[in-house]
Specification:
The chain is built from five helices and two strands; from the N terminus they run ββααααα. By secondary structure, the protein is mainly alpha-helical. The chain has one domain: Serine Threonine Protein Phosphatase 5, Tetratricopeptide repeat. A hairpin with an 8-residue loop joins β1 and β2. The structure holds zinc ion (ZN).
Length: about 150
């Protein structure tokens, strides 16, 4: 895992074990720990989705998005979980935020297309992360979460 300096004017690549940024001297140790924690929280959210503990999964992803508002992967996962909980309004809001940050984000664009079609009239679809077992039945399978994050 590479560690990029969080200072926006620097963004230098550092070793994951670095105490300070080699370019600007910013302390990195605590930052690396929060990243590690964030990865674990994200993976915990995915596990909870698989166990159909959707409310708890949403809390994991919501915490990540609160701390890392530009974490598109976490926000996409949060939006997907909201959708699975039939919270169309929150799902749409989060996908719109992702779309504002990155108009080419294909997951957000798929999600927005989906929520728009649902607002016209809900119909049966399998909205599942790829890691979940595919269910039989008709409908579009939307792949939101591709893989777990790597831990250090
Ligand atoms: Zn730096």
């Amino acid at each position: 895992m590479k560690l990029f300096c969080p200072e926006p004017s620097c963004r230098a690549e550092n070793l994951p074990t670095a105490d300070i940024c080699a370019r600007c001297g910013l302390p990195l140790k605590a930052y690396a720990q929060t990243l590690d924690y964030a990865a674990r929280l994200f993976n915990r959210g995915l596990d909870l989705v698989q166990q159909h503990q959707l409310e708890q999964a949403r809390e994991c992803f919501a915490a990540l998005v609160y701390w890392y508002p530009h974490d598109r992967e976490a926000r996409n996962a949060l939006a997907m979980t909201c959708l699975m909980l039939n919270d169309l309004i929150s799902a749409t809001e989060h996908w719109q935020k992702v779309h504002e940050q990155a108009p080419s984000d294909s997951i957000a664009n798929q999600g927005l297309a989906l929520t728009t079609s649902w607002q016209k009239g809900p119909h049966l679809m399998n909205v599942l992360p790829e890691s979940m077992p595919a269910q039989s039945g008709k409908g579009t399978r939307v792949v939101i979460v591709k893989k777990k994050r790597k831990k250090k």
